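Marked as duplicate of an earlier ticket. Keeping the data here for the record.
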Amino acid sequence: MRYDSILHEQLEQAVCGTHTICACACHTGIPLLHDRACCAPCPWCKMEKVVGGHAQPSNRTEIARSQILHGMGYYLDKHPDGKMLHDPLAACCAIDPTIGEWAEVEVYRERGEWGSRLAPGSGVRIITDYDHEKFVSTFLMR
């Protein structure tokens, strides 16, 4: 699984959306990321404050997604090919095991490298493939 510009855009949509901060006359038609103060919470995402030109997240989920978006945006500026996401994929598979295709294996180490080979009955299970759309949906908390 690679975090790339496509996944970054999907996360940006999940974080920023396309709605306005609120329905009051001073903000009608202005996108979520703007430089004006808001006089009421956004009716869609319930964000209440604008800080430094961005809406202040209102809950832990929004804070986490905003931090991932910011950090990965910085990373992608330096590494446009993206970043492998082993641990987030594993975490999403722990949340929803149907994301992954699992196999029982034996884990080994040879010549300084880790590997695995099929070993039915071993009790050690790894992800051998995954459903990308299910992963993205879980990762973006849709």
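See parent ticket for discussion. Residues 1-83 form one domain.
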